[in-house]
From TrEMBL:
This is Protein L.
């Protein structure tokens, strides 16, 4: 699970619409940030300008890797 310490560096989003979109492997993301697999919780960081969702690590047993935005960066 992602962690943070300084609460002043994060802000609650005003709505969930950007965080409800689901992304499969090889799809492009709209926002840079941290993405989390719905099934196993695996977290990855992606940049929007190069942001194709990668497959899980090779030793993963997750067979339903659909990612959702966890933390959207300010870009
Ligand atoms: Zn997974």
């Amino acid at each position: 699970m992602a962690q943070y310490y300084y609460t002043g560096n994060l802000q609650q989003a005003s709505n969930s619409s950007d965080f409800d979109v689901e992304f499969k492997t090889s799809s492009f993301v709209e926002y840079s940030g941290i993405y989390r697999c719905k099934t196993c919780g695996y977290e990855i960081a992606l940049n929007a300008h190069e942001g194709k969702v990668p497959p899980h690590q090779s030793n993963s047993h997750c067979n339903n890797n659909i990612f959702k935005l966890l933390v959207k960066t300010n870009n």
